[in-house]
Specification:
Elements: E1 12-16, H1 28-38, E2 42-48, H2 59-76, E3 79-85, H3 91-105, E4 111-114, H4 126-144, E5 150-152, H5 155-158, H6 161-165, E6 174-177, E7 180-181, H7 187-198, E8 203-209, H8 221-233, E9 238-243, H9 269-285
Bound molecules: ligand IDC.
């Protein structure tokens, strides 16, 4: 992945949580704090897509949340991923939502689209089921926004990047997201990623956890480091799940944490690790 001047770039940051459940962090002050104190260069808005209480039923409410995060990212000069956080296909609704974002913001370099968080494992095939979805939704985005980065999801919770890479999408400026949870997914998934890159596609880790794929369980530091080493060696950007104060180990915040100004006591083990890692990366790259 390269920046506007053609230089290789690695983005590092945090994903917000499902937008319907933790809206207090869809705020300007949260993004400001993450930029100033955690030194992120990308933020992900996980716009909830579910049968109830989501962008399918509360379109305007969820669009307003996306706008808050986009405006905050633009004000801070960082990238923002608009993640259609779905596990099931709603191509018409995804097209409507993301092409509206494209109309309002597609002229800005900050915008990155993620039209499908993850497809579930059972019976979903790339060429038959997922590629046509992307053709429709990315096609709708491209009618409005010809060039901003789009990051495509793949079957098996966005792990089958090698399969997608063998029948890639025909659009320009496309990457494929690779999702991992360090205590569950290991070398075998990194090998899939390597195979995808050999097949010629760009990868982007729009979501990973330091813990188990359930979003809970023990933090696996050794495997988290193995993943980071691999991502950095390959210039793959990464964003962690998640900025949330839910009582689960993938959450970066402890229950009741305010929208910004977090002290060490407000952070979980994972949150402290991510903050340290992000600050070290910013230091090493010498920005700010
Ligand atoms: C999880 C949350 C959990 C919530 C669940 C609902 O951490 O609190 O109950 O969603 O579905 C993903 C998904 C992401 C998951 C996360 C952890 O993109 O939505 O969040 N995960 O399970 N893919 C792999 C893991």
């Amino acid at each position: 992945m390269v920046d506007a001047s053609g230089e290789p770039v690695t983005l590092r940051g945090m994903s917000l949580f499902w937008s319907q459940w933790e809206p207090e962090y869809y705020s300007r002050e949260t993004v400001d704090w993450l930029v100033d104190d955690w030194r992120i260069t990308a933020i992900r808005a996980a716009i909830a897509v579910a049968p109830e209480d989501s962008a399918l039923t509360e379109y305007d409410r969820e669009m307003a949340k996306a706008r808050i995060v986009i405006d905050a990212a633009v004000a801070n000069g960082i990238y923002v991923i608009i993640d259609w956080h779905a596990h099931t296909q709603h191509p018409a609704e995804a097209s409507r939502f993301l092409s509206q974002i494209a109309r309002e913001y597609g002229h800005l370099p900050n915008i990155i689209y993620e039209p499908f968080n993850e497809l579930l494992a059972e019976g979903v095939e790339w060429t038959r089921d997922v590629r046509p979805y992307h053709m429709q939704v990315i096609g709708a985005i491209r009618e409005v926004d010809p060039d901003n980065l789009v990051i495509a999801g793949s079957p098996f919770w966005s792990q089958h990047v090698d399969v997608a890479a063998s029948d890639p999408l025909p659009f320009t400026n496309i990457a494929y997201t690779l999702h991992y949870y360090a205590a569950t997914h290991r070398q075998e998934l990194r090998d899939r990623g390597a195979l995808a890159m050999e097949r010629g596609v760009a990868l982007f880790i729009t979501e990973f956890g330091t813990v188990e794929a359930t979003g809970n369980g023990e933090l696996d530091l050794a495997e988290s480091n193995a993943w980071w080493d691999w991502a950095e060696a390959n210039g793959i950007s990464w964003l962690n799940w998640s900025i949330a104060d839910k009582d689960e180990t993938s959450a970066a915040l402890r229950p009741g944490a305010p929208p910004s100004g977090w002290s060490d006591e407000d952070l979980t083990e994972s949150g402290r690790l991510l903050r340290a890692r992000l600050r070290a990366a910013a230091e090493a790259e010498g920005y700010r």
